[in-house]
């Protein structure tokens, strides 16, 4: 049951992150449009705000990339540990998977 709760939490976090990125990009776009219409100090101020917004978005994307890489490495490590701890089961799973994929390919 906890795995389902974790999956829901991950999905909620992903949706929140995507909404955050969309909002940030929309704000930056709006500021850049306003800067195009403005002149002088007002335009420079709007461009600076837009650049800060884009910088925050880029940092959030880099943080997410790092988190995904970490999760990927953890998954690889867990899989490697499982294969070393259960070599015969791993061979059986790989063989069965290969058989199923082969059957699916041969049907086409």
Key traits:
single chain, 108 residues, mainly alpha, cell inner membrane
Description of the molecule:
The chain has about 110 residues and is mainly α. The protein has helices at about 1-35, 40-85, 85-105. The chain has one domain. α2 crosses α3 (about 85-105). Its main location: membrane. It is a single-pass membrane protein.
Kindly estimate the percentage of residues that lie in beta strands according to DSSP.
under 5%
Number of helices: 3
Task: Tell me the total number of β-strands.
Answer: 0
Distance between the termini: 38 Å
| Rounded Rg | 24 Å
Overall average residue pLDDT: 83
Q: Major sheet: size, sense and barrel closure? A: none
Structural class: mainly alpha
**Envelope shape:** elongated
How many domain units? 1
Approximate helicity band: over 70%
Which regions contain 5 or more consecutive residues with pLDDT less than 50? Answer: none
Order of helices and strands: HHH
Membrane topology: Single-pass membrane protein
Pfam families: DUF883, DUF883_C
Family: Belongs to the ElaB/YgaM/YqjD family.
Keywords: Cell inner membrane, Cell membrane, Membrane, Transmembrane, Transmembrane helix
What is the topological layout?
Layout: H1 2-37, H2 40-85, H3 87-107
Helix pairs in contact: 1-2, 2-3
InterPro entries: DUF883_C (IPR043605), DUF883_N (IPR043604), YqjD/ElaB (IPR010279)
Keywords: Cell inner membrane, Cell membrane, Membrane, Transmembrane, Transmembrane helix
Domain DUF883: 16-67, 79-108
